[in-house]
């Protein structure tokens, strides 16, 4: 089976390709989808998939990830990439100075678009915001997001791909693809 | 002449109605337009207008405002409303601690949609970020945005409507409406 992973982010494409190795062939389509502003990452993912499917017309997946910090009322949420680009981890750590509640979570919503319809799968990873950047792996907020006793930038890509929000969403998608779809719907 | 002001923000609608008093009748249409994520506020405004015009089919205006802080690489930009809602002026002041460069600007892009096409008008207001909130008027970032020696929250609505980014964009629009359109295009 062949799936197109529609994303302009090479890091994501690499993570997805590694995940499906031996199960599905992933073709990276580096297309920019217009992204709606919406507070719900599931909705954003679905709208992107509709756009991409209208253009490509073949089975594809798109994903969208939100990064939500409890003490900041869910900020940066679906604008995680923009916010990281502008104020970086330094900005987030500054906003979190003196905050006791360090809880945060990543939520990924993956939409599978096929001629049978659009199916949204989500995965969540809960953790906490560190007080300083730790580790050199990963990307984005990984160095300031700690799960257990290590940040996502301190663990190997393989370990990250096992526990990450995206991995969890991909896992649900994989189960769905491997089962008889009719049983689920 | 009657113009529909399409916005879910009552403060904006009030500012626009006050501005056009005696020139055009403004009908507030409190419709939510889906908003694309885009770094260019002109583009966001135009896309919203296309959506609204497809629904309403009568002359209308929509606007979109970005708030750009130089030292934060343009953050929060077009996500001004979301960011204000989540981290507030307190968050911005925290991010700006120890920053020497306090320059910031509001940019409003208003799109007029008519059966003759879509026309985008912009207005900009330059100022600086204060080190504390000052004043009780206005809304949003007004208490931390200083122009000359007062914040936008310290001046009257009338004064704000004379100098604001939105007023400047509305002014260009008003001139355009009052002149023979054919001369301009």
List the main descriptive attributes of the protein structure presented here.
185 residues, homodimer, eight-stranded mixed beta sheet, Maf protein, alpha+beta
Topology (elements, then pairings):
Two copies of one chain form a homodimer.
Chain A: E1 2-6, H1 10-19, E2 25-29, E3 35-37, H2 41-56, E4 60-69, E5 76-77, H3 80-95, E6 103-114, E7 117-129, E8 145-147, E9 150-151, H4 157-163, H5 165-178, H6 181-184
Parallel strand pairs in A: 1-2, 1-4
Antiparallel strand pairs in A: 4-5, 4-6, 6-7, 7-8, 8-9
Describe the structure.
The structure is a homodimer of 185-residue chains. By secondary structure, the first copy, chain A, is of the alpha+beta class. Chain A has one domain (2-184): Maf protein (Alpha-Beta Complex). Helices cover 36% and strands 30% of the residues of chain A. The first copy, chain A, has six helices and nine strands, in the order βαββαββαββββααα. Chain A has helices at residues 10-19, 41-56, 80-95, 157-163, 165-178, 181-184; strands at residues 2-6, 25-29, 35-37, 60-69, 76-77, 103-114, 117-129, 145-147, 150-151. In chain A, strands 1, 2, 4, 5, 6, 7, 8 and 9 form an eight-stranded mixed sheet that branches. In chain A, β1 (2-6), α1 and β2 (25-29) form a beta-alpha-beta unit. In chain A, α4 (157-163) crosses α5 (165-178). Chain A binds chain B through residues 34-39, 72-77, 79, 82-83, 85-87, 91, 94-95, 97, and chain B through 34-38, 72-77, 79, 82-83, 85-87, 91, 94-95, 97. β3 of chain A pairs antiparallel with β3 of chain B.
